Amino acid sequence: MIAFVRGNVAATSLSSAVVDVGGIGFELMCTPGTLARLRTGTVATLPTSMVVREDSMTLYGFADEEEKVVFELVQTASGVGPKVAQAIIAVLSPDGVRTAILNEDVKTLTKVPGIGQKGAQRIILELKDRIGAPTGTGGAAATPAAAAWREQVHQGLVGLGYSARDAEKAVEAVADEAGTTTSPDVGALLRSALRSLSKA
After folding, report:
1. Where does the chain have alpha helices with state H?
2. CA angle (107, 109, 115) in 5-degree steps
3. Could you give the CA distance from residue 68 to residue 75 in angstroms, rounded to a whole number?
4. What CATH code would you report for 146-199?
5. What H or E segment, with its residue span, contains residue 48?
6. 93 and which of 16, 48, 128, 139 could share a cystine (Cβ 3.0–4.6 Å)?
7. Are 142 and 37 in contact (CB under 8 A)?
8. Whole-model pTM?
């Protein structure tokens, strides 16, 4: 299996990045928060997890090992495939996932697109004894230029299945949180935007 890739970022899209490793372009499916950290032409090292199906082999890339561990672990719960697992780490930090499961916080888990109340309860039941305690690292923070955060959050929400109109409303809802900082945390803003949509 491919544990990680390291190379020049050749391209990024709404949901993936292409990393040039020795002349071979590996396409990695990534969360918006991870993609926000990548810059075309720069060298990146991304932990990876390969999901093999009868008709496909998909490589998922992560900001750090903690995201990879949680991504792989949540898939051991019934009904959680790679797309839902990726949505989980897009909405919640690794420690956020651990805390929600340990505290049996169904409400937090149902903020993830694709997880209903029964699904959240099943995840808690099956993973509570295996998820482990929060590490306190919080995961890697995404820090793109201030001018780019709106587009990154908007693209992330659309990629998670929300309409462009709803995504735009959510972006406006978290604009004050972004403030005027030159390096807003896109991962945190995306989570806030998702919270605002869940309240709507």
Report:
1. 32-35, 65-74, 82-91, 94-102, 106-109, 117-127, 149-159, 164-173, 175-178, 186-199
2. 110
3. 11
4. 1.10.8
5. strand 43-53
6. 139
7. yes
8. 0.69
Considering the segment(s) 4-61 as one domain, its CATH architecture is: Beta Barrel (2.40)
> 96-134 burial by CB neighbour count: b if 16+ within 10 A, else e?
bbbbbbbeeebebbbbbbbbeeebbebbbebbeeebeee
pLDDT tens across 29-69, in order? 999 889 988 999 999 999 999 999 888 899 999 999 999 99
CA-based nearest residue to 27, from 40, 39, 10:
10
Give the pLDDT band of residue 200 (cuts 50, 70, 90). Answer: low
Class of domain 65-127: mainly alpha
What residue ranges do the domains of the chain occupy? 4-61, 65-127, 146-199
CA 152/CA 189 separation, integer angstroms: 10
Q: Is 47 left (phi over 0), alpha (psi -120 to 50) or beta?
A: beta
Distances, alpha carbon 55 to alpha carbons 2, 50, 51, in Å = 19, 14, 11
Q: Where are the alpha helices (DSSP H) in 13-148?
A: 32-35, 65-74, 82-91, 94-102, 106-109, 117-127
